C-alpha cells in the first residue's frame, strides 16, 4: 500500500514536500455510528505536514480538529482514506513511539513528583535508570522547571503543571509533538507566556508540532501552517501558510502581516459556518 | 478538631437521655427491692405496683429513684454502672483472667484481623479480576451482591457447624465469617478505584504503548488507594461484627460475643453491656487507626483531600 499510495504523491507534489512530509493524510474519513445514526466526524481530509512544521488546527467545536489529531496519534481509526505518520500507519507509529501527546489537562499523577511524572514514559519504555535521570533533568530544563523535579503537582501552578506535561511528552525524544488545546484551560497572561516558551522550545528541538486550538491569535502566533476546519461534517475549509518569520516576539501580533493572516483565518471560519 | 464540639454535644445528649431512661426502666425492680428492704413504697402491694405506670410509680416514690441506678441486675444499667464494670473487667483483673475483657477482646480481635486480612485479599483479587475480565465482571459481581443479602445470623451457625464437622474449630470459622462480611466493601471500592482513571489518563498510556500490566501497576493501582482506604474502614468494622456473630451461636467460651451471650443467659446485664461497649470501643479504635493510616498514606502520596 505504501508504494501504491506513495508513488502518485511524489508525482503530484513538489519533490521537496513529498520527501519531508512526516504526516500525510489523503481523503481521511471518520464516521462514528451512534444511536442517532452515523456522525461524520471527518470528511475527505487531505493534508501534508512537513518535518519541522508547526501546524495549528483551528475551528469551532465539532469540526473534528481534536478527532484528526487523535487519528494521527492512532487513538481513533479512520473509516476511510489513508493516513501515514513517518511512513507508517498511525497504529504502527504509536507503537514505535513516534510522537509525544499533550492533552488539554496536564493529567500529572498526584502520587508522583514532577520528576517522577516525566519519568513515567521512560519507565514504561524501559530506559535505564541512569538514562531516565539524565533525560528528566534535560527536559525539565527545556521547559524551565529545572528546580522542580522533587515537587508534587499540587505544589505547582496550572501553567507549570502543563509545562511539566510537555516535558513528559518530550522525554522520549519523539520527533512529533501532538498538542490538544494544551493551554485552553489557562488564563491569557499565562497562555501568552507559554506560547512564547513553546516557540523557543520548537526552535531548539526542531520538532514537528500539531497543535489544536480555538484561539485565532494563538494559532497565528505559533504556526507555520494554519488548518482552518469547519463542522458537520468535519473538513478542512482553508490551509494558510504563514508568512511570518520564525523568530516571533510577542509584539509581532500588532504587525499588519499578523492581522492580515488572522483576518484570513476568521474569514475561513466564517465561510465554514455559512455552509450549514 | 472542628468536629469535637458537635460530637460531644451528641454524646452529651445520648448520655442525658440514657440517664433519664434508667428511672422508668428500673423503677419497678427498684420498688420491689425497696419493699423487701422495709422501705415504705406506694402502693405497698407488689401486684398492685405492676398495674401502676413507670412514671407514676417514680413520681409517687421519689425516694426510690436513686436506687434505680444501683441495682445489681437492672433492666437498663446506668451509664456509671457500665463504666465501673468496664473499669473492673479491663483494668482491675489480670488480662489472663476469664473475667477480663482484654482477654475476651483479644480472642475476638484475632479472629477479626485474620478474617479482615482474608476478606481484603479476596476482595482485591476479585476486583482485579472484575476490572480486567469482562467474564468475571458479568459473573462475579451479581454473586458478590447476592452474598450480602443473606442474613449473616442465619449463615454463621451453618459455617461454624459445617467447619466443626470437618474438624476445624476456634479461630478459623469465625475469621471466615469476618472475611465473608469484609470482602464485599473491598470489592466494590476497589472496582470503583481501579476504574477511576479517566479516558485521558488511559489514552496517555496508550500513546506510550503501555501494556495492561504497566497500566495496572503505574496508574490503576495507585489511583485506587483512596477508594481502598474507604473500603478498609467499612471492612474492619464489618469484620468485628462478623467475629462477634461467629461467637454467638456456638456457645463459644471466649470473646465479646460469648460475654454478651453469658450476660444475657445468666441475667447479668452489666456483663452484656460492658462487652457491648468494649466491642464498640474496639471498632472505633480500629476505624480510627485506618483513618490515621489513610491520612498518612494519602499525604505521602500527595493525594490528601
Mind explaining what this structure looks like?
The complex is a heterodimer of chains A (276) and B (305). Chain A is built from 10 helices and 9 strands. Chain A has 276 residues and is of the alpha/beta class. Chain A folds into 2 domains: 2-98 and 174-274, P-loop containing nucleotide triphosphate hydrolases (Rossmann fold, 3-Layer(aba) Sandwich), CATH 3.40.50.300; 107-173, no CATH class. Chain A starts with a helix and ends with a helix. Mean pLDDT of chain A is 85; it is low at 1-18. In chain B, helix 5 (101-132) runs antiparallel to helix 6 (134-147). The two termini of chain B are 16 Å apart. The A-B interface holds A 73-75, 94-95, 97, 99-101, 103-105, 107, 109-113, 120-121, 123-125, 152-154 and B 200-201, 203-210, 214, 218-219, 222, 225, 301-303.
Quick synopsis:
Chain A is an alpha/beta fold. Chain A has a six-stranded mixed sheet, sandwiched between helices. A three-stranded antiparallel sheet of chain A has the order 2-1-4. Chain A has helices at 2-12, 15-20, 65-73, 90-95, 114-124, 129-142, 158-170, 188-205, 216-222, 256-274; strands at 21-34, 37-50, 54-58, 80-85, 99-102, 176-180, 208-213, 225-230, 235-241.
| Approximate shape of chain B | elongated
The first-level CATH class of the largest domain in chain A is given as Alpha Beta
Calculate the terminal CA-CA distance of chain B, rounded to whole Å: 16 Å
Give a quick account of the main beta sheet of chain A: strands, pairing sense, barrel closure: 6 strands, mixed
How many structural domains in the coordinates of chain B? 2
CATH fold topology of the largest domain in chain A:
Rossmann fold
Amino acid at each position: 500500500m505504501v508504494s501504491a499510495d506513495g508513488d502518485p504523491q511524489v508525482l503530484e507534489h513538489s519533490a521537496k514536500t513529498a520527501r519531508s512530509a512526516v504526516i500525510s493524510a489523503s481523503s481521511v474519513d471518520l464516521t462514528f455510528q451512534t444511536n442517532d445514526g452515523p456522525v461524520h466526524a471527518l470528511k475527505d481530509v487531505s493534508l501534508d505536514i512537513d518535518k519541522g512544521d508547526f501546524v495549528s488546527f483551528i475551528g469551532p467545536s465539532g469540526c473534528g480538529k481534536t478527532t484528526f489529531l487523535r487519528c494521527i496519534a492512532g487513538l481513533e481509526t479512520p473509516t476511510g482514506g489513508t493516513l501515514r505518520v513517518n511512513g507508517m500507519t498511525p497504529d504502527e507509529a504509536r507503537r514505535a513511539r513516534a510522537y509525544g501527546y499533550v492533552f488539554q489537562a496536564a493529567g500529572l499523577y498526584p502520587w508522583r513528583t514532577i520528576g517522577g511524572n516525566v519519568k513515567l514514559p521512560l519507565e514504561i519504555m524501559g530506559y535505564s535508570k541512569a538514562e531516565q535521570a539524565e533525560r528528566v533533568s534535560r527536559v525539565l530544563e527545556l521547559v524551565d522547571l529545572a528546580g522542580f523535579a522533587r515537587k508534587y503537582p499540587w505544589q505547582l501552578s496550572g501553567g507549570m503543571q502543563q509545562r511539566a506535561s510537555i516535558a513528559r511528552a518530550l522525554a522520549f525524544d519523539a520527533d512529533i509533538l501532538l498538542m490538544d488545546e494544551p493551554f485552553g484551560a489557562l488564563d491569557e497572561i499565562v497562555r501568552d507566556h507559554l506560547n512564547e516558551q513553546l516557540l523557543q522550545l520548537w526552535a531548539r528541538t526542531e520538532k514537528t508540532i500539531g497543535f489544536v486550538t480555538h484561539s485565532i491569535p494563538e494559532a497565528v502566533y505559533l504556526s507555520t501552517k494554519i488548518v482552518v476546519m469547519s463542522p458537520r461534517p468535519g473538513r478542512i475549509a482553508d490551509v494558510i501558510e504563514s508568512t511570518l518569520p520564525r523568530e516571533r516576539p510577542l509584539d509581532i501580533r500588532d504587525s499588519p502581516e499578523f492581522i492580515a493572516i488572522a483576518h484570513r483565518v476568521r474569514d475561513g471560519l466564517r465561510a465554514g459556518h455559512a455552509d450549514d | 478538631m472542628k468536629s469535637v464540639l458537635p460530637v460531644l454535644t451528641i454524646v452529651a445528649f445520648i448520655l442525658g437521655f440514657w440517664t433519664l431512661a434508667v428511672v422508668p426502666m428500673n423503677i419497678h425492680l427498684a420498688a420491689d427491692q425497696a419493699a423487701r428492704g422495709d422501705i415504705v413504697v406506694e402502693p405497698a402491694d407488689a401486684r398492685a405496683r405492676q398495674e401502676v405506670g413507670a412514671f407514676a410509680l417514680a413520681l409517687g416514690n421519689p425516694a426510690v429513684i436513686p436506687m434505680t441506678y444501683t441495682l445489681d441486675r437492672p433492666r437498663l444499667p446506668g451509664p456509671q454502672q457500665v463504666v465501673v464494670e468496664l473499669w473492673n473487667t479491663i483494668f482491675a483483673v489480670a488480662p489472663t483472667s476469664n473475667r477480663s475483657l482484654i482477654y475476651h477482646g483479644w480472642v475476638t480481635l484475632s479472629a477479626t484481623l485474620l478474617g479482615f486480612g482474608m476478606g481484603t485479599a479476596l476482595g482485591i483479587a476479585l476486583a482485579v479480576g472484575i476490572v480486567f475480565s469482562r467474564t468475571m465482571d458479568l459473573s462475579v459481581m451479581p454473586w458478590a451482591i447476592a452474598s450480602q443479602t443473606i442474613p449473616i445470623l442465619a449463615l454463621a451457625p451453618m459455617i461454624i457447624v459445617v467447619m466443626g464437622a470437618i474438624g476445624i474449630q476456634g479461630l478459623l470459622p469465625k475469621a471466615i465469617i469476618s472475611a465473608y462480611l469484609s470482602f464485599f466493601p473491598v470489592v466494590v471500592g476497589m472496582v470503583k478505584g481501579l476504574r477511576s482513571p479517566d479516558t485521558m489518563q488511559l489514552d496517555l498510556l496508550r500513546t506510550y504503548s503501555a501494556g495492561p500490566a504497566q497500566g495496572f501497576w503505574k496508574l490503576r493501582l495507585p489511583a485506587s488507594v483512596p477508594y481502598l482506604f474507604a473500603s478498609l474502614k467499612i471492612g474492619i468494622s464489618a469484620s468485628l461484627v462478623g467475629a462477634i456473630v461467629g461467637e454467638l451461636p456456638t456457645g463459644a467460651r471466649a470473646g465479646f460475643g460469648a460475654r454478651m451471650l453469658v450476660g444475657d443467659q445468666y441475667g447479668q446485664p452489666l456483663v452484656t453491656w460492658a462487652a457491648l461497649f468494649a466491642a464498640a470501643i474496639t471498632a472505633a479504635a480500629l476505624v480510627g487507626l485506618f483513618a490515621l493510616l489513610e491520612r498518612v498514606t494519602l499525604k505521602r502520596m500527595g493525594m490528601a483531600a
